Amino acid sequence: MRQEAQAIVLAAGPGMRMTSLTSHTPKCLLPLGTLPMLCYPLHLLQQAGFSEVSVVVSEGQEQRVGKMVEQYGLKVDLDVAVVSTAHDPGTADSLRQIASKIKRSVEEVVVISSDLVTDVALQDVLDQHRSRGADLTMLTSPTPSLQTTPPGPKSKTHLNSDIICTEAGSGRLVYAVAGGDYDECVTLQSSLLNCAAPLLLSASTQDAHLYVMKRWLFDYVLNKESPCADMGSLKAEILPHIVSCQFTDHSSNDKLGLSGAVEREEWDDLVKKYNSSVVPSRHHSLAHLQPPVCLTFHHPGLCVRANTLHTYWHLNRKINELFNQVYPNSEWQLRHPTAVIIERAQVSEDSVVGGGTMVCEKTNIASSVVGKHCRINPLVRLSSSVLGDHVTLASGCVIENSLILASVERKCVIKNCIVTDSNKIEEGKTYSGEVLEATQDFA
């Protein structure tokens, strides 16, 4: 693939919906199987032919992220851009902080979240975007049905569904509301009914947070003089604004009434301004200025964002059966060849064991994920659980249906728990349905 596009992976998010999982580890480096979460979108981009990827990370994480290519056998060069997260910036704020990293020669910008795990063929998304002359293409998919229940106390496990409205047949995006931006109902404006084609309104379709934008539109989004200047969220604020701009009346300067639409004359001025700094693209002509064309690429296959405890748990529990689907054409092995499993240990076929891990004798591991550089001491029983990297389990521990991201150095029984602080564990005690949290020291 000719390098017409620049790829940006947004990996600076603190993971505020992940409870205490991100106390000491940024969300993008949390393990999914035996790989950091960030590896999955990087591999997706690699499969589409990208040789270089810009990764936006929070301060202090640049060295860890920069080493990932060598550590995990990736074949892309990473340009790591650091942003300050001191004031909890939104996705659009992060992009503004690294605007200088965007090359002037590219025709399109691909923006993807670091928590996306999917088997979509990204090249197909790019091909549709170009062949149909889109200015913005959003990847959508059915809202995933999660059949696993995460450990810990019972709580609301996910956000409300996104509301996506498209034109029947064309896939043109005409309305979008992020799941976190409404409570129980959404009011649709009557101007939507002015569309000539039938509309498909869905509360079971998700915005997967993968976008392809023409360069001029990306410049418009980031420019301080555009209406987007005060918008912090790409998904919740800027996208609805861009979508509404499609509905400027061609016969007059009047808006059709959708929220955020700009006047036709103002829009034309903005397009001319932002296109003037871009090498003309064979996919876009300046001769006939039009409001943006916003399309969806609907992928019916696997598409899950690991941005909540529920989805993170689900992906880890299913990673053994999903791995070849979401990480194709890779030599990476879920049961790493450097893992040492003593002969008298029992490890089920569907369990995952990371590199450098030691599984001692008389240990039983069933349907579990064990991260890299762990030590499972003798007489441990581990079932239906997920262990992070560098975790040690004391001899005789019984762990069931739990997420363990800190060492358990005292013999105990842990069922249906989340453990991120080893100091919370007492010898001989039984824990059930609890969150044993670490002290927060990662922003």
TrEMBL record:
It is found in: Cytoplasm, Cytosol. Residues 7-144 form the Nucleotidyl transferase domain. This is Translation initiation factor eIF2B subunit gamma. Gene3D superfamilies: Hexapeptide repeat proteins, Spore Coat Polysaccharide Biosynthesis Protein SpsA, Chain A. Its main location: cytoplasm. SUPFAM superfamilies: Nucleotide-diphospho-sugar transferases. It comes from Scylla paramamosain. Residues 136-158 are annotated as: Disordered. Residues 136-149 have a biased composition (Low complexity). Acts as a component of the translation initiation factor 2B (eIF2B) complex, which catalyzes the exchange of GDP for GTP on the eukaryotic initiation factor 2 (eIF2) complex gamma subunit. Its guanine nucleotide exchange factor activity is repressed when bound to eIF2 complex phosphorylated on the alpha subunit, thereby limiting the amount of methionyl-initiator methionine tRNA available to the ribosome and consequently global translation is repressed. One of its GO terms (biological process) is cytoplasmic translational initiation. The keyword Cytoplasm applies. Belongs to the eIF-2B gamma/epsilon subunits family. Keywords: Cytoplasm, Initiation factor, Protein biosynthesis. Component of the translation initiation factor 2B (eIF2B) complex which is a heterodecamer of two sets of five different subunits: alpha, beta, gamma, delta and epsilon. Subunits alpha, beta and delta comprise a regulatory subcomplex and subunits epsilon and gamma comprise a catalytic subcomplex. Within the complex, the hexameric regulatory complex resides at the center, with the two heterodimeric catalytic subcomplexes bound on opposite sides. One of its GO terms (cellular component) is cytosol. The keyword NADP does not apply. One of its GO terms (molecular function) is translation initiation factor activity.
